[in-house]
Design brief:
The complex is a heterodimer.
Chain A: H1 2-14, H2 24-27, H3 30-37, H4 44-55, H5 66-70, H6 73-76, E1 86-88, E2 93-95, H7 97-108, H8 119-130, H9 146-156, H10 167-171, E3 178-179, E4 182-183, E5 194-196, E6 201-203, H11 205-215, H12 226-238, E7 249-250
Parallel strand pairs in A: 5-7
Antiparallel strand pairs in A: 1-2, 3-4, 5-6
Helix pairs in contact in A: 4-8, 7-8, 9-12
Chain B: H1 2-14, H2 33-41, H3 48-51, H4 72-75, H5 78-87, H6 121-132
The chains are: A mainly alpha, B mainly alpha.
Chain lengths: ~250, ~140
């Protein structure tokens, strides 16, 4: 009996299925979950609506809207956010979703670049991510991304800052524990960009990374930096199979 | 300077188990338990209550990543307490408790915090004096 039980748990432990992982959503209070679920009360939906309007607006010297090239986002953008970051041939490096939208703006619309945390870029990213709601995260299988994922894992496991803590110390080893009032989540990037109550606005995943790095009194990397793209690639592969939920609401 | 040296030597002698701890105070001014109490309760400064519960009725949300500090003055001697606050890595190399008075091996420290320890030597002494005063069960 004992042996059987041990074998069973051993077998289960080796296959970390989506069911064993918990998203930040599942760890939130029922009140916050209800706020996220109800489209009328989820503040992130405001950005989604703005993004929908921008999608149809001609911009730049090309005078083209996103829709002019991509058609209806419901079809063309379905599942895209669930497999980003992806390889960009021209730059020979991976880009995340905000980076891709920024590139379409400068390369294809011939319009001026937007800041990564600017309102219109967050709005478009939220609108595009929304088209993946409920889609399981399916990392891109392009082998050129693999070394980046390895770099991301190393970063995740490297202690840093005056407090000398690695992301993994909290998000792998102490997920579910309490840092004062905050429950430590597993750090699955299922709902970005997200509305964070502490920010009182929408923000991207890289801004969230910056918060955690500042929390351990480390020098954050820049939003859109290769380091954050690598971390994002690693976290997305770690979250494979979990369903997208943007725009998420978080404390 | 001399004190910092003797401190490092004591850690080396204590070894990985750190049984002996740091017998010598880091400063000439004896630790003040009431100042230590205030430092422990100050989440920005000491961060202790982010991870530890204890007899701190003033703090509504206490963390649970480390052991409850209630009665820690019965469990650990003054030198043992000092060693843990200065640098818990000398007791447990994989600890998540930050090194409060050591810069050893730190990486990518934020510009604002570079070259400074989380607590000064005197703050460590105050905190240690307070911890040593935590005797008996919960208040």
């Amino acid at each position: 009996m004992m042996l059987r039980a041990a074998l069973l748990t051993g077998a289960l432990a080796t296959v970390a299925t989506a069911e064993e992982r918990r998203t930040g959503y599942e760890m939130m209070s029922p009140d916050l979950r209800a706020m996220q679920d109800d489209e009328m009360s989820n503040p992130g939906m405001l950005w989604v609506a703005e993004g929908a309007a921008l999608w149809d607006t001609p911009e730049g010297e090309a005078g083209l809207s996103c829709a002019d090239c991509h058609g209806g986002a419901e079809q063309s953008m379905a599942g895209v956010a669930a497999r980003y970051p992806a390889w960009d041939e021209d730059s020979g490096a991976p880009v995340d979703l905000a980076g891709r939208i920024g590139l379409c703006r400068t390369r294809h619309q011939n319009a001026g670049a937007w800041d990564r945390e600017s309102r219109p870029l967050l709005a478009l990213a939220a609108f595009v991510s929304r088209q993946s709601k409920g889609v399981p995260i399916t990392p891109d299988s392009d082998p050129r991304l693999d070394p980046w994922r390895d770099t991301g894992r190393v970063l995740f496991e490297t202690r840093m800052g005056q407090l000398n803590l690695a992301c993994a110390n909290c998000h792998d080893d102490h997920a579910g524990g309490h840092l004062a009032a905050a429950t430590i989540p597993e750090a699955h990037p299922t709902g970005y960009p997200q509305y964070r109550l502490q920010w009182e606005e929408m923000g991207g995943l890289h801004r969230r990374f910056g918060n955690c790095m500042a929390g351990v009194r480390a020098e954050p990397f820049a939003s859109g930096s290769p380091e954050y793209i690598a971390l994002e690639l690693f976290l997305m592969s770690r979250a494979a199979g979990l369903e997208m939920e943007a725009p998420a609401v978080r404390p | 300077m001399g004190r910092a040296l003797s401190c490092a030597a004591a850690i080396a002698i204590a070894g990985p188990l750190g049984a002996q701890g740091l017998p010598d105070p880091l400063t000439d001014v004896p630790g003040d338990p009431s100042r230590g109490h205030a430092i422990v309760l100050d989440q920005q400064k000491s961060l202790c209550v982010l991870c530890h519960a204890g007899p701190f009725a003033e703090v509504p949300f206490q963390g649970d990543l480390g052991p409850d500090l209630t009665g820690v003055g019965d469990r650990l001697s003054l030198p043992e307490l000092r060693l843990r606050v200065v640098d818990s890595r000398s007791v447990n190399p994989d600890t998540i408790m930050p090194p409060f008075h050591s810069l050893d091996g730190l990486a990518r420290v934020g510009a604002r915090w570079q070259g400074t320890t989380i607590l000064t030597a005197q703050e460590v002494e105050d905190v240690v004096a307070y911890l040593a005063s935590l005797k008996g069960g919960s208040e």
